[in-house]
Structure prediction request, 254 residues.
Amino acid sequence: MKIDAAILGGVGFASYLEGSAKIINTPYGDVGVYVVELSGKTIAIVPRHSGAAEHVPPHMINYRANLWAIKELGIKKIIATNSVGTMKGHGIGSFVVPDDFVDLTKTRVSTFYDRSTVHVDMTEPYCPQISKCIMDTLEKKGLQYTRGTYVCTEGPRFETRAEIKMMSMIGDIVGMTGLPEVVLARELELCYASICTITNQACGLTDNKITADEVVDELGTKKDLLMDILVEIIDSLPETRECECMNATQGARL
Prediction:
């Protein structure tokens, strides 16, 4: 069975996961993948927070297993969805299509190459072909979006005012799940891009306390729209990959 693309989904995708998950065995653990038919496309949805626990926190997600399972299914194209806070005053509910990242995680395994050295190039970390399809779809729907740098923190706590002040000098949005996904996808020579939903103002930008409830509530208002966007993005993906993602490890090995 040919699967057109994979969606790496975060909080809010539970209502779309009907039936039993297909269990994919990987060297890093088992992964539950939901294969669904939407608008004539076959899509694999990997809910990154699912696991034995009710909700796997961001710093405990088995990122390597998730990416390996996608590759095992023969999928070449991945669209990630991420909920993020804005450090630059983006409107709540608007979208950001990241074009770069800063990795401030601390304990996550961020490579498949534990016993050999492979230096993959990350000059353009997000697949330009998929990113263009995301932006074209958002423009077609008349939805507000910007480009920006994604800063990934370890979590599960939110950031301090001082941390946000520092990070706002190097990035635009802050989240906890974008890394090491994008790096692992590149190591596997998969195409990976992300659509980020602004769910809150980062710490210190308002006088209000940041809560998980506001993040979940905002995602709840956007989940149907986001799924509609994702289906249109996947429908617009080119059959042929013309990016450099597929050649990521060429010349990278020592």
